[in-house]
Specification:
With 97 residues, the protein is mainly alpha-helical. 45% of the residues lie in helices and 0% in strands. The protein is elongated and about 50 Å long. The termini are close together.
């Protein structure tokens, strides 16, 4: 079970694309700007960055990954769709339990 969780998380990261989680002193690479320029992240221009504003670029990647996993476009990922994804990526879900 632990292996399945680890593989699932790794697969999600691979699907969603590389995310640079190292923000301290390195600039906010999600927007291609330095940390001193927050105006692009500040969607409503109130001088504050909400979590939604901060996470917006990553949410788009996650939405794209979700759509790819949702093979029948019913806006949910079924157990079958998830297992097919894992199977395509070489994970044997039948021996896990």
């Amino acid at each position: 079970m632990k292996l399945l969780v680890l593989v699932s998380l790794a697969a999600l990261v691979l699907i969603a694309g590389p995310v640079n989680w190292s923000l301290a002193g390195h600039g906010y690479h999600g927007y291609g700007m330095s940390m001193s320029d927050i105006s692009e992240m500040d969607g409503n221009q109130d001088g504050l960055i909400t979590f939604d504003e901060f996470s917006a670029p990553h949410n788009e990647s996650l939405k794209s990954a979700f759509k790819m996993l949702d093979a029948n476009n019913d806006e949910v990922i079924s157990k079958e769709e998830w297992e097919e994804f894992l199977k395509i990526h070489g994970v044997d879900t039948k021996s896990e339990s």
